[in-house]
Amino acid sequence: MKLFFWRRKRAGGVQKKKSKIREWVDAAIFAIVVATLIRTFIFEAFMIPSGSMERTLLINDYLFVSKISYGPRIPMTPLAWPFTNHTLPFTKRTKAFSTAIQWPYMRLPGFSHITRNDVIVFNYPCGDTALYDNSGGDADYYTMKRNLTPDSLKLFYGDPVYRPVDKRETWIKRCVGISGDTIQVIDGQLYVNGQPGFIPPNSLSGYQVKTRSGKPFEEKEQKKLSLDPGYGIGQDSSRYYTYNFTLDNVKTIREWGDTIQPDMKTRSRRGIFPGEPYKFPWSEDTFGPVYVPKKGASVQLDTCVLPFYRRIIETYENNKLVVKGDRIFINGLEATSYTFKMNYYWMMGDNRHESVDSRFWGFVPEDHLIGKAWVIWFSYHKTYKGSNIRWNRFFSLIK
User: Fold this and answer.
1) Cα(330)–Cα(339) distance, integer angstroms
2) Which pLDDT score, from 0 to 100, does residue 62 have?
3) What residues make up the domain containing 253?
4) How many domains does the structure of the chain reveal?
5) Which end of the chain has less neighbouring CB within 10 Å, N or C?
C-alpha cells in the first residue's frame, strides 16, 4: 500500500526541467523528422545549375518540385544522411548512403498522371555507374567508356562507383514523349506520333545570323534580345554569327532586316542514342523514329532493334541478356519479342542545341521520376559586375 502511494506521488509531482541543450536537441530532431517527411512525400527544393531549359528555366532559378502530383516515391535506399543525395557535403567522395537495406520501387497514389510536356525532375538514367574526376566531381562513366580504353579509364578515373536509383544525380527536362508515343526529329522540328510537337514559347534553338553591319549585335540590340554579352556567339567563314534565340527573337531580327536561318545539326554524332552511328547516323536535329515503351506492350526483337531496348532489358528491368550471332537470349531462353515491365518517358531540354537529353541517353524509367516542377520561389542572375535578383520570376508557375 505504501509503495502504491509513493508511485502516485512521484507521477503527479514536479517534473525535472530539461536542460537548454536537451531542449535544442529535441527541437532539432523534431525539425529534421518533419522536414524529411515533407521533402520525401510532399515537395522538395532544387536549383537550376545549367542552361539546358532556357529560357523556360534560367540558371540560378530556385524551384519547388511537387512529389504529390504523380505520387511520392517511397525511398529505395532508406539508410542515408538527411538532406543529402549521394555524397556528404564538402567531402566530394564520401558516400551519404548505405545499400545494406534496399526496398523495391513503390509509389503512393498522386493527384494526377504524367502528361506530355510536363517539366519533370528525375534521377539521371545513366547515373547507375559514375566516375570521379581529378577535382572530385562526377564524370559520365558511359561516355568515358566509349572514348577511352579500359587501361586509360582506370588510370585517369580509378574504379567506378555504383549508385542506386534514388541516389543518382537529379536532372530536369520537359517530358515531350509519354509511354506509347513515337518520337522523331526532322530538320530540328519535333514530331510526336507523326504530329508537330509542342514548342515552348520561351525555348531556345540555334540560329545563324548575318547582320547588316557584318558585326555581332551591339549592346542595345543584345539587351532587346535578352542576351548576355558574348553569350552563344560563334562565327563561320561566311560571316554568319551563331546565337541561341527564341521564336520572338527571330521575329524581331527579321523586322530589323538582318538575315537569319536555323543552325541545323545534321552531322552524325557518336554520342547520339542508341550509340551506333554506322547503323543509325542521327544528330540532334535529325533523329528517329523511336518508340517509347509502355508497360505491358511488346516489341519484336532482332539485332537491329535491340540497341534501343538493350539497356531497358538488362539494367532497368534486371534480365540477363546474351547475343549469339543473330540470336537473342533473355534469362537463358531464346527471345524474338520482349514485353516491358515499366512505363518509360522521353525527355528533352527547351534549349534544344545546348541540352544533353534523351537524344543522347535514351529513355527515362518510371522508377527514376522524382516529381513535377511546380513553382519558382527565388531567382538571381550573376554578371561580371555582381548578382541581380530577378524579382519578376518570384512565385511564377512552371509551364
Assistant:
1) 12
2) 97
3) 205-262
4) 2
5) N
Alpha carbon distance, N-terminus to C-terminus of the chain: 72
Give dist(CA 138, CA 152) in Å, integer.
17
**DSSP string covering 340-380:** -SS-EEEEE-SBTTS--SHHHH--EEGGGEEEEEEEEEEEE
- Compute the distance between CA of residue 291 and CA of residue 279 in angstroms, rounded to an integer: 17
Instruction: Say whether both 47 and 172 belong to one domain.
Output: yes
Q: Report CA 388 to chain centroid distance, whole Å.
A: 26
Alpha carbon 252 to chain centroid, angstroms: 32
C-alpha cell at 17: 526541467
Q: Cβ(111)–Cβ(94) under 8 Å?
A: no
CA distance 373 to 57: 10
Map residue 289 onto helix, strand or coil: strand
Cα 9 to the center of its chain, rounded Å: 62
- CATH number, domain of 236, equals 3.30.70
Among 208, 244, 213, 239, smallest CA distance to 226 is for 244
Question: What are the tens digits of pLDDT across the range 357-377?
Answer: 999 999 999 999 999 999 999
* Bridge partner residues of 345 (DSSP): 364
Among 262, 282, 304, where does a domain finish?
262
Kindly give the pairing relationship between strand 182-186 and strand 189-192.
antiparallel
Residues 296 and 156 in one domain: yes
Q: What is the pLDDT of residues 211-227, one digit of tens each?
A: 888 888 888 888 888 88
Residue 22 covered by a domain: no
| Grid cell in block for residue 358 | 534523351
Name residues whose C-beta falls within 8 Å of residue 186's C-beta, 6 or more positions apart in sequence. 286
Burial of 338 (0-12, 13-18, 19+ CB in 10 A): buried
CB–CB of 368/125 below 8 Å?
yes
How far, in Å, CA of 308 to CA of 338, rounded?
12
* Ranges under pLDDT 70 in the chain: 1-16, 134-136, 228-238, 384
The C-alpha torsion from 144 through 146 and 147 to 152, rounded to 10°, is 70
Which parts of the chain fold into alpha helices (H)? 2-12, 20-41, 141-147, 150-157, 219-224, 247-256, 306-311, 358-361
Say yes or no: 290 and 214 in one domain: no
Residues 6 or more apart whose Cβ sits within 8 Å of residue 391 = none
Amino acid identity, residue 373?
A
Q: Whats the size of the chain, residue-wise?
A: 399
